[in-house]
Design a protein that fits this description.
- It is a single chain.
- With about 280 residues, the protein is an alpha/beta fold.
- The mean pLDDT is about 95.
- The longest helix is centred in the first third of the chain and has 13 residues, at about 25-35.
- The chain has 2 domains: about 5-65, Helicase, Ruva Protein, domain 3; about 85-275, Rossmann fold (3-Layer(aba) Sandwich).
- Helix 2 packs across helix 3 (about 40-45) and helix 2 (about 25-35) packs antiparallel against helix 4.
- A 7-stranded mixed beta sheet has the order 5-4-3-6-7-9-8, with helices on both faces. Strands 1-2 form a two-stranded antiparallel ribbon.
- The chain is built from 11 helices and 9 strands.
- The protein has helices spanning about 5-15, 25-35, 40-45, 55-65, 70, 95-105, 125-130, 145-155, 195-200, 215-225, 245-250, and strands at about 75, 80-85, 115, 135-140, 165, 180-185, 230-235, 255-260, 265-275.
- The radius of gyration is 20 Å and the shape is globular.
Amino acid sequence: MADGVRAALASAAQRLAVFSETPRLDAEVLMAHALAIPRERLLLHHLDAAVPETFARLLARRLDHEPIAYITGCRAFWTIELAVGPGVLVPRADSETLIEAAVAHFSNVAPERILDLGTGPGTLLLAALAEWPGATGVGVDQSAEALDFARRNAALLGLADRASFALGNWAGGLVGPYDLILANPPYIGTTERLPREVVEHEPGGALFAGADGLTDYRRLVPQLRALLAPGGAAILEIGATQSEAVTALLAAEWFHVAVRHDLGGHPRALIATLTS
């Protein structure tokens, strides 16, 4: 890679294109990380610089299908940046649909108490708390490793005084009411095929939920009504083909349900509100 950053990026992108949907972006992010500078600065001022020695090692990890977020140790989500690593689910842009739905629902009156079930590294809870400075919240997860990341992220974002975290199995043992309940349960069927970077690196417990991907919704949905405040909303992430099935589970608990689509046009969030 003696020809400099420009040539190294072109070569890396060509190699990554075998499996990555964003090979050039991957290469640029890794190079910026190796140089310890923002990607924008890399593109504007460093394309003719010498390639740092660490870039080859970072590229080798990505060529082994390791997620970019694990390699760099961080992932941007909504208006915040989260520390992530092995043992936690990498935040996805599709999950921002839940925050968009929450912002729309609480356009007039901000939520005061927020619950995030399956919080992982604190993704949805911390994004919501950053959106509403007057709110407090609780994040629950069954993974102690994920909760370690969540507490670290709360501290890094200056939100530790408004966020608490608990080890638990969905909403068991919690006492409401909460104005906003957020949840991104596992929803992948056990026979579904996933990219290597997901199935070989991210925690299976945060991905798979029985043969039809609905196991955790069946556990979670009956717990929601007792926890939700009047005028509040429970917003659940779903797989692109699960809108009808999860809506039926919510309707059986006397929720009114609306659907919000992600940027790809797929059903991604169900907004459940209390019926009279």
